[in-house]
Specification:
The protein is α+β, with helices and mostly antiparallel strands. It folds into 3 domains: about 45 residues, Uridine Diphospho-n-acetylenolpyruvylglucosamine Reductase, domain 2 (2-Layer Sandwich); about 110 residues, 2-Layer Sandwich (Uridine Diphospho-n-acetylenolpyruvylglucosamine Reductase, domain 3); about 90 residues, Enolase-like, domain 1, CATH 3.30.390.50. A hairpin with a 2-residue loop joins strand 4 and strand 5. The longest helix is centred in the C-terminal third of the chain and has 18 residues. The radius of gyration is 18 Å and the shape is globular. The N and C termini lie far apart (about 45 Å). This is Xanthine dehydrogenase family protein subunit M. GO terms for molecular function: FAD binding; oxidoreductase activity. It comes from Fibrella aquatilis. Keywords: FAD, Flavoprotein, Oxidoreductase.
C-alpha cells in the first residue's frame, strides 16, 4: 500500500495505550479493518498505536455466569476455543465464517466491533447474545450493552480516546443459538446476517447485520414469534441498497435468513 506519513508506536501496557490514544493516536490490533480504510484514505490517523501484543487484551475465560473474551483475541482463536464451543456455540461457528484463514488468524473481535462495519458478523451475534462491551479511557472503565453500542454507519458509542478491552457475554447454558448469513463471495461480509438466541425459558432475541446502517435487535420479530404470528423481519427499518443487493432484495433476504435461523434451532 502507498500511504502517507504517520507515526507508529507500540503500547507497552494498557495504561500506556490509553495515554497514547488520549494524545490523538489510533488503535491498531490485527489491522484487517483499519489498514484497508487507510489505503482508501477513508481513515488518516497521524499516529498508530499498536495494541496487538498487550496481554491485558488476550484470553478467553469464565467469570461467574459470563464468558469474558479479550478484545485482542482473534476470530480464529474464538472459533477454536472449547470454552466458546461449550457455552456460546454460535460464536464459534460464526467466527469460523468470517473472511478467510488469513483474516481469522489476524483480525480481532475488538477491532471488528470498533470499526462497526454494518456488514460485519460480530454485531448481530453480540446483540442477540446480550453481550456487554467493556472500554477503558482516561476516566476509567465503562460498560455499554451491545444493543446500544452500535449507533450508525461505522459509528459506535465509544469515545475517541477509549479502547475496547473485553466483551462479556452471559453463558446461555441450555439455550439454542445460531447465526445464518448470506455472504458476499469475495469478502465473506454479510449482505444479510441473522443471529437468534432461544433461551431455556423460551424467550427469543433476534438481531441482524448487513440490513441497515447499524446492526439492530428486531424486537418486532421477537414479539410476533412469541405470540404465534408470522414474523416480518426488519419492518419499519431503513434498508440498505447497494450494488450487492437492492432494498427490496435485502428485505426479502432478511426474512429468508430469519426463517433459516429459526429452522436451525
Amino acid at each position: 500500500m502507498i500511504t502517507y506519513p504517520f507515526q507508529y508506536k507500540r503500547a507497552s501496557s494498557l495504561a500506556d495505550a490509553v495515554a497514547l490514544l488520549a494524545d490523538g493516536g489510533k488503535a491498531l490490533s490485527g489491522g484487517h479493518s483499519l489498514i484497508p480504510t487507510m489505503k482508501l484514505r477513508l481513515n488518516a490517523p497521524d499516529v498508530l498505536v499498536d495494541v496487538g501484543r498487550l496481554p491485558e487484551l488476550k484470553g478467553i475465560a469464565l467469570d461467574g455466569n459470563e464468558l469474558v473474551i479479550g478484545a485482542g483475541v482473534t476470530h480464529g482463536a474464538i472459533a477454536a476455543s472449547d470454552l466458546v464451543k461449550q457455552h456460546l456455540p454460535m460464536f464459534a461457528t460464526g467466527a469460523g465464517q468470517i473472511g478467510d484463514p488469513s483474516v481469522r488468524n489476524r483480525g480481532t473481535i475488538g477491532g471488528s466491533i470498533a470499526h462497526a462495519d454494518p456488514a460485519a458478523d460480530w454485531p448481530a451475534m453480540l446483540i442477540a447474545a446480550d453481550a456487554t462491551i467493556v472500554m477503558q479511557g482516561p476516566s476509567g472503565s465503562r460498560q455499554v450493552k451491545a444493543e446500544q453500542f452500535f449507533t450508525g454507519l461505522f459509528s459506535t458509542a465509544m469515545h475517541e480516546n477509549e479502547l475496547i478491552t473485553q466483551i462479556r457475554v452471559p453463558k446461555h447454558d441450555g439455550a439454542k443459538m445460531t447465526y445464518q448469513k448470506f455472504s458476499q463471495p469475495a469478502s465473506r461480509y454479510a449482505i444479510v446476517g441473522c443471529a437468534v438466541v432461544k433461551n431455556a425459558d423460551g424467550s427469543l432475541r433476534v438481531a441482524f447485520s448487513g440490513v441497515s446502517e447499524a446492526p439492530f435487535r428486531d424486537k418486532n420479530v421477537e414479539a410476533q414469534l412469541s405470540s404465534g404470528q408470522t414474523a416480518d423481519a426488519a419492518a419499519g427499518m431503513s434498508i440498505l441498497s447497494d450494488h450487492y443487493a437492492s432494498e427490496e432484495y435485502r428485505k426479502h433476504l432478511a426474512n429468508v435468513y430469519l426463517n433459516r435461523a429459526l429452522a436451525a434451532l
